[in-house]
Design goal:
50% strand; three-stranded antiparallel β-sheet
Length: 84
């Protein structure tokens, strides 16, 4: 898990997915038993909302929980690299 921050908002990122359409999911809650999770999504715009495991399974081309070398979402920063 790694935290991202923007202004007064902080989110816990547990995984990262890239779909074939090049959208990126910064997953904050893994999909539940119904296949629905939560993520900050970098698509046409950057937005936070629900995601479907079915989309990850059908269109995912990259999945990782290794977040150390990953760039943060546009407009966000990794909390551990923000100067106090």
């Amino acid at each position: 898990m790694r935290q991202i921050t923007k202004d007064n908002s902080t989110l816990n990122v547990v995984a990262h997915v890239i779909l074939r359409n090049m959208w990126e999911y910064y997953i904050t809650e893994l999909p539940d038993e119904n296949g629905i999770g939560w993520a900050l999504v970098m698509g046409d715009v950057v937005e936070y909302g629900s995601i479907a495991q079915a989309d990850i399974d059908a269109y995912g081309m990259s999945y990782t929980t290794q977040l150390d070398d990953l760039m943060p979402p546009v407009g966000w920063a990794w909390a551990d690299s923000v100067l106090a």
